[in-house]
Design goal:
Keywords: Coiled coil. This protein has about 130 residues and is an all-alpha fold. It has a domain at about 30-115. Helices cover about 80% and strands about 0% of the residues. It is built from 2 helices and no strands. It is rod-shaped.
Length: about 130
């Protein structure tokens, strides 16, 4: 015999028990359908796991973004509070300056008034040295 005969002698007979083919006792068509269904389910499960992993990664990214935004929000609120305090301090400083300016104006007017009295008294004294009473 030639190569075909040699191959036939070494090949496994069809009734040699479970092998790569369908399990014994099941109809071949039913077995193929089951196997195909199991493969499809396995593929679906793997795809769902991949989708779930992508969703988890996206959720983690969103959480990181949310944490960052919360931090930015807190910093903004603190900056606004500091700004309000600074504004209030500036307003109080402005009011104090207004008060001091008004006080200085009153003091200047008082000094001018006293200066006028002194000058008037001096002139009167010079004009009538004995008449100042």
């Amino acid at each position: 015999g030639g190569p075909l005969a040699a191959r036939a002698a070494t090949s496994v007979p069809h009734d040699a028990g479970p092998g790569p083919g369908p399990p014994l006792g099941l109809a071949t068509g039913m077995s193929t359908d089951l196997t195909r269904q199991q493969v499809d389910q396995q593929r679906m499960v793997e795809e769902l796991i991949r989708v779930n992993d992508r969703l988890r990664a996206a959720r983690d990214m969103l959480q990181a973004d949310q944490d960052f935004l919360n931090t930015q929000w807190d910093e903004l609120a603190q900056a606004q509070q500091a700004h309000k305090k600074a504004e209030k301090a500036l307003w109080e400083e402005r009011e104090e300056l207004k008060r001091l300016r008004a006080q200085q104006g009153a003091t200047s007017r008082t000094l001018e008034h006293m200066q006028e009295k002194v000058c008037t008294a001096a002139v009167a004294t010079l004009e009538d040295p004995g008449g100042v009473q």
